[in-house]
Amino acid sequence: MKTNQILKSMKVVSWIIFIGICIKAGAILVSFIVSLFVNQEAAKDLFLGLNLSNIYSFDPSYYNAFVVLILVLLAVQAFIFFMVIKLLSKFDEQFPFSQPISDLISKIGLVSLFTGFVALIGTGFSKWLKSQSVSFNFDWSAEEFLLMAGVIFIISLIYKRGVEIQSENELTI
Amino acid sequence: MAIVVNLDVMMAKRKMSLNELSEKVDITLSNLSILKTGKAKAVRFSTLNSICRVLECQPGDILEFQEDDG
């Protein structure tokens, strides 16, 4: 009963985070389009104080690349949480080690790794821009995503073994 | 799998149906069916004990080793 409540709470939190990331991505996309075609000033506040106007002033193409990278990162993050919601929906406490769950965990690990690489690219890009004396503030959290990917990879290996043991147990009379 | 389960042969000799055997050994019909069709990966000694007691036979009457081809 307690586990069910925890799982339900986790599902609700995952939905909130998923919707939050989608809203953030949508807002940044709209502000980005406005900054490109309507008013450059929109680059000063893309979303909750995100100010990339200095990058725009330095070079609009770098600004475009930077924002596209942010949008890709947010899209992949949203996809991770979408898979987490799917996992929590499919999870069965009675038979936890099932092939669909194992596949989902592996997918989440792979996508997290991809997110980490995108964030690493963003971090490298930010470092280069800052070396060109362009000042801005944006945290890519690359190390966190790579750490998460590593942990999820290990969990997926353990889960795969659990699936094998469970199916063998089910076929033990 | 080189181990062949001859449960149906023994059941025929004792003129016992799967339902009857299931009730007597207290194993579900689906599990007995898995055993009978050779899909089981392992058999517990307790299960073998129950089946042999009910069918009045030896484990060797139910389990047979056949060399795999190739």
Explain what you see.
The complex is a heterodimer of chains A (173) and B (70). By secondary structure, chain A is mostly helical. Chain A has helices at residues 2-37, 53-58, 60-90, 99-131, 142-170. The model of chain A has no long low-confidence stretch (mean pLDDT 91). Chain B is mainly alpha-helical and 70 residues long. Chain B is built from five helices and two strands. In chain B, strands 1-2 form a two-stranded antiparallel ribbon. The chains are: A mainly alpha (173), B mainly alpha (70). Chain A binds chain B through residues 168, 171-173, and chain B through 27, 31-32, 34-35, 39-44, 47.
List the defining traits of the structure above.
heterodimer; A: 173 residues; mainly alpha; 78% helix; B: 70 residues; two-stranded antiparallel ribbon; 2 strands; globular
Please tell me how large the radius of gyration of chain A is.
20 Å
The residue-averaged pLDDT of chain A reads 91
Mean of residue pLDDT of chain B?
90
Beta content of chain A: under 5%
Question: Which oligomerization state do the chains in this entry correspond to?
Answer: heterodimer
Given the structure, what is the number of helices of chain A?
5
Q: Determine the fraction of residues in helical runs of chain A and give it as a percent range.
A: over 70%
Order of helices and strands of chain A: HHHHH
Distance from N terminus to C terminus of chain A (CA atoms, Å) equals 29 Å
Q: How much beta of chain B, percentage-wise?
A: 5-15%
Q: Name the structural class of chain B.
A: mainly alpha
> Which stretches of chain B are poorly predicted, pLDDT < 50 over at least 5 residues?
none
Question: How many beta strands in the DSSP annotation of chain A?
Answer: 0
